[in-house]
Amino acid sequence: MTLLVISPDYASHLLPLATLATAWRDRGERVVVASGPATAGIVDVFGFERRDLRLGRGSNPGVIAAGEQPPDEGDSLRGFFRATAEGALATLRYQAQERLTDLMWDPVGRASATARIVEELAPDQVLVDHLAFSARLGLLSAGTAHGDVVLGHPSALPVGSEVYGVPPAWPSAFAPDPSGLEALQELCRTVSDRFTDEWNRAAGELDPGHRPVADAFAEHGPLVLYNYPSELVGDDRRRLLPPHRFLGSARRSEEEDPEVEAWLSRGRPFVYVSFGSFLSVRGDVLARVAAALRAIGATAAVAVGSTDAAELGDLPSDWLVRGYLPQVRLLAAAAGAVTHGGNNSVTEAIGSGVPLVVLPFSTDQFAGAAAVEAAGFGTVLDPNAASVADLASALRSVLDPSADVRGRLDAIAAAQAARPGPEVAFDALAD
C-alpha cells in the first residue's frame, strides 16, 4: 500500500501530517510526502520518501525569519508582525488582505503538479492539508479520493453562516469594537468572494465540467479529519459538520535530547513556554511572561524561537532556554504551559493533560482560545494588554486547577494514549 501525504512547505503543517502517516509506516506501508525543499529534513527524520511539490511562495523549516524568505514573503511577514502589535482586528484585517496570495499561489500549475504526482505514484490513500487549496483542486478535479485534514481550529473549514477569517467566538479578554468587527466581516466576505471566483476559474480550467461553488473556503473532501479534540467542540458546530472524524491530536515521537532529559531528571514542576514558529518574534510578550514566571517563583522551559534570549531579562540558572525545544516531550512532563494558541500547541497540550495560559495573536487562535476557556482548561489574556501581574495571576490559576478540570484533562490524555490520532486516521481511511 502507498500513502501520499501532501503538505505546504511549513514545519507546523508537515509535522502533524507526518505524525499521522506513522500509522502506515509502522505497518510497513510505503509513505511518500509531497512538499517543498525547506521541510525535506523533516521527511528524512520520519523515514519517508519525498517528491518535490511547492505550494506557496514561503516556507518554514521550524523557526521563521522574515529575512530568510523571498522578498515578497519577507515583506508580508514583517507586515504581519507589525499588525500583531496593533491588536486582534488589525492582525485579522492584514491576514484577510494577504489571503489571496497566501492561499492560491499558481493554482492551476500547482494543481497540475499534484495530479502528475498522483498519476506517477498511483497511491492507495491520500492525506492532504486542508489549507493546501491548489493541491486539493488537483485532487478534486481528478476525482482522487483523499482524507482532508483540518490542522487548525475546526473553523478553518467554515460551516453555517461563518465567514472564513472571522473568529466564530472570542475569549472574554477580547471585546472587539463593533464597527471594526463589522468592517472585518465585510472585508472577509469580499476576500471569500474573490477567492471563490479564483477557485472556480482554476477548477473550470482543470475540469471543463466543474460546477461553480458558492464558497470555496467551505469546500472539503469526502472525509474531513479534524486534528482537534472532540471535547473542545460544542454541539452547535457538531450538527453542521460534514462527514468527519476527530483525531484528538497528532503528538509525534521526538528524538531523545540528552540536555532536555538531564534537565527533566531533576523532577521539578515547570511551565513550558512557546509562541511557535512565527510568533516567537514577539519578544516583548515573551519578556513579560518570563517576568511573571520569575514573580511566582516558577521554573520554566522556554523556546525563544527567533527572539534573542537576552530580551527576556535576567533568567534563573535552573531554567531551560533554547531557540527550539522538543515540545511534545516537555508537555508530557509540564505542570502548565503558555502558548500563542496555535493548533499544534493547544492540541498537544490538551492531549498531554496540560492546562494553558493562552495569548492569541491571529487567525484561528482566538477561536481556539475561546474553546479552551469555555472548557475550563485554561486562562486567556490579550498578549498586547496583559501586565506582568495579570500573567502571574493566570499562571497561578493554571498551576492549581480544580479537581474537575484535572480529572477531565486526565481523562482526555488517557483516551488519546489508548487510541492516538494516527490510529484514528488510519482506521478512517480504511473504512
TrEMBL record:
Alphabetical list of InterPro entries matching this protein: Glycosyltransferase_28, UDP_glucos_trans
A Pfam family it matches: UDPGT
Protein origin, superkingdom: Bacteria
Entry protein name: Glycosyltransferase
Species in which this protein is naturally found: Agromyces tropicus
Taxonomic path: Bacteria, Bacillati, Actinomycetota, Actinomycetes, Micrococcales
